[in-house]
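Memo subject: From amino acid sequence to discrete backbone structure tokens
Keywords: amino acid chain, backbone geometry, structure tokens, three-dimensional fold.
Body of memo: The sequence and its backbone structure tokens, given next.
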Amino acid sequence: LEKMTDLVAVWEVALSDGVHKIEFEHGTTSGKRVVYVDGKEEIRKEWMFKLVGKETFTVGVAKTKATINIDAVSGFAYEYTLEINGKSLKKYMENRSKTTNTWVLSLGGTDYRIVLEKDTMDVWCNGKKMETVGEFVEDGTETHFSVGDHSCYIKAVSSGKRKEGIIHTLIVDDREIPEALE
């Protein structure tokens, strides 16, 4: 296995199906460009005469669009920026924290990462979209699903404040799970 000697950038991107690691190799003498997603080679280009430009690929189950921009800073120095769905990684993650809730928990020695996509009410657990059943309750809604032999639901209730909107709470085996900050 060839050692990644030209590794110039590594990013971690949290998506609904999990946290993905993106690695980028840029050989400024050979013109080589290699993109790895979760350790798997997605793009390999040898002998690129143009050392600046961009490489576009997809990440995760939902095939989220990602672009690495390669810009010359000065002389032989380069800057590498990652865009997700056309936004800078920072902007994308800020926006994502408004559109999703994430919980990380351990059940019977297994770690789980549960993500709620608020716009679609899709629930993801460790990279798989869950089968859910929604039901109306007195003070809001509950979205029920199972993780192993554990019964889970996400309760959605109005905060009563327009700016705050709806509060989503994960309940596993009648226990409230605190939200994770990614």
Observations:
- The CA atoms of residues 99 and 120 lie 10 Å apart.
- The mean pLDDT is 91.
- The chain has one helix and 17 strands.
